[in-house]
Specification:
alpha/beta; Rossmann fold; 2 domains; 6-stranded mixed sheet; 18 helices; ATP binding; ABC_transporter-like_CS; ATP-binding cassette domain-containing protein
């Protein structure tokens, strides 16, 4: 028996965008498949179609059979019975998957409550412990906003595989995790699932955990086959582009621009959330034209320190001082958030979000000129041809991330604070964005980058600071040139 059969699947969104066009896929019991492709190629749409979770107005034709059951045209009660127990789901955006007013433990336990079941005693805490969450009972009683993105992603994996489903659909389940933890978590997902359909931009991860690969390009399946063969000898141009972009990163490029004045100085800052000390007595300084990377395990305090440096949160102790004029010029500090979809107003067309920094600085724009300016910004981040009138909900997470980056750069900030700016991007897009940010630093912007991808950071950052349990490990600060 097959776990999933997709035949001639076509998905067209309400705005007329055809996200999938004639896709075929068959996954046998116990098989592990990966779907790869550029951001916006239809990977997430495929998973949502299988679960019957497409947005209102989407038109679907073809056939999708999960465990022998036809999904297209199925009633909502039948789909609810399928989700979780027959087809588990690990979404790409863990923050959106959680109710912000409920605890993380409640979120995990909802995997049982959705089917009118009671979680077995100790099962929630045991599941969180199995994915590396320390002191699971205490952590589960906290709310999602007090968890890091990587930690919350692991909790969502526990919820998505709670019933050991015959099929698990995992959409970028490890994008915010370091490589060692990513392998451990995916091994756990495979152990708890009969078959796996994995969406990932990490081709090395795909090679280690998938038996077969389907490559999507522009909503169409352009190549499929055994992972070992396809990733070593690709035939489709789209596959070759991905494989070529995923080769090991080269040596750091030499610095070409001088490092300037201090843009921000954090002096012995600390931040606690209840009993948890997220940042503990950390000092950090960034200068004009400098790129500083923050790395560390999930929950080590990277994102909290970034928010403190950006001025989005106040430290409990210590001080954060921005350069002169910081409070007078709009856009002096611009963030790129870890959750790009939530950072864009869902009610606004893209052009309105993109030109918001320009208008904040006093630039007068007609509707037509605003759309033209937005189109130019989109082209700069590799989204040429994307309609500026589209809404964020119609984008992939990777596309939304590039829109958020374009908006931040439009403000010409003195300080850019980017939390996992390439985590949701395919390898080719990530390389483009990395080059764009490096060029931005060369023009004088100070950049603080939070990332789990140390290897990529070391090719373009001037310093890489490792966070461990809320503290900055200054013994492993590495320099690429410029200010020591």
């Amino acid at each position: 028996m097959t776990a999933l059969v997709v035949r001639d699947l076509v998905v067209t969104y309400a705005d007329g965008h055809r996200a999938l066009d004639g896709v075929d896929l068959e996954i046998g019991d116990g098989e592990s498949w990966a779907v790869v492709g550029r951001s916006g190629c239809g990977k997430t749409t495929l998973l949502r179609a299988v679960l019957g979770l497409l947005p209102p107005g989407a038109r679907v034709t073809g056939s999708i059979r999960v465990g022998g059951r036809e999904v297209i045209g199925a009633s909502e009660p039948d789909l609810r019975a399928l989700r979780g127990r027959v087809a588990g789901y690990v979404p790409q955006d863990p923050f959106a998957a959680c109710d912000p007013l409920r605890t993380v433990g409640y979120h995990v336990a909802s995997a049982w409550r959705a089917h009118r079941l009671v979680p077995p005693p100790g099962r929630v805490d045991a599941g969180l412990t199995a994915v590396g969450i320390d002191d699971a009972a205490t952590s589960a009683a906290r709310h999602p906003h007090t968890w890091s993105g990587g930690m919350l992603q692991r909790a969502t994996i526990v919820a998505g595989t709670a019933h050991d489903p015959p099929l698990t659909l995992a959409d970028e389940p490890t994008s915010a995790l370091d490589a060692e933890l990513a392998d451990d978590v995916l091994q756990l997902v495979r152990a708890r699932s009969g078959a796996l359909l994995l969406v990932s931009h990490d081709l090395a991860l795909v090679a280690r955990h998938a038996d077969h690969v389907l490559v999507l390009d522009g909503g169409r399946g352009v190549e499929h086959g055994p992972a070992a063969r396809l990733l070593s000898a690709p035939s489709a141009p789209a596959t070759r582009t991905l494989v070529e972009a995923s080769v090991p990163y080269g040596r750091p490029a030499p610095r070409t621009a001088p490092i300037g004045d201090v843009v921000v100085r954090a002096d012995r800052v600390s931040r606690t959330y209840g009993p948890v000390t997220a940042v503990d007595d950390v000092s950090l300084e960034l200068r004009s034209g400098e790129v500083v990377g923050l790395v560390g395990r999930s929950g080590s305090g990277k994102s909290t320190l970034a928010r403190l440096v950006a001025g989005m949160e106040r430290p409990d102790t210590g001080t954060v001082v921005h350069g002169s004029g910081a409070r007078r010029r709009p856009g002096y500090v611009m963030p790129i958030f870890q959750d790009p979809v939530a950072s864009l107003d869902r009610r606004w067309p893209l052009w309105r979000s993109l030109v918001e920094p320009l208008r904040a600085r006093g630039r007068r724009l007609t509707r037509a000129s605003a759309r033209t300016a937005a189109a130019e910004m989109l082209e700069r981040v590799g989204l040429a041809g994307l309609d500026p009138g589209r809404r964020p909900a119609s984008l992939s997470v990777g596309q939304a991330q590039r829109v958020a980056i374009a908006r931040a750069l439009a403000a010409e900030p003195a300080l850019l604070v980017a939390d996992e700016p390439t985590a949701s991007l395919d390898v080719a897009s990530a390389a483009t964005i990395t080059e764009l940010l490096r060029d931005t630093a060369s023009d004088g912007t100070a950049i603080l980058v939070v990332s789990h991808d140390r290897a990529r950071l070391e090719t373009w950052a001037d310093r890489v600071v490792t966070m461990r349990a809320g503290r900055a490990d200054t013994a492993v600060v590495e320099h690429r040139g410029g200010h020591p």
